[in-house]
Design a protein that fits this description.
about 80 residues; about 65% helix; rod-shaped
Length: about 80
Amino acid sequence: MTTVRLPVEIEQKLDSLSKSKHKSKTELIKEALEAFFHQEEGEKDSFEIGKEYFGKYGSGIGSLSTTYKMRIKEKLHAKYHSH
């Protein structure tokens, strides 16, 4: 069993909602906590959201991140010295 101390304002809102919904405070608190837990479980970080797309449209060249400077130099050299 868990006991929670609520600020007066929140206790009053909970009491009012309990009466208007014809539910006990316990029921409302349980529903609120379940909604909170569901929301927390559903939130994903940016990695989780995009991980299915990482590498999906890759070039197949595994060295691109380490050889990009060399490739840029080669392209610039070819562009300006091909005349």
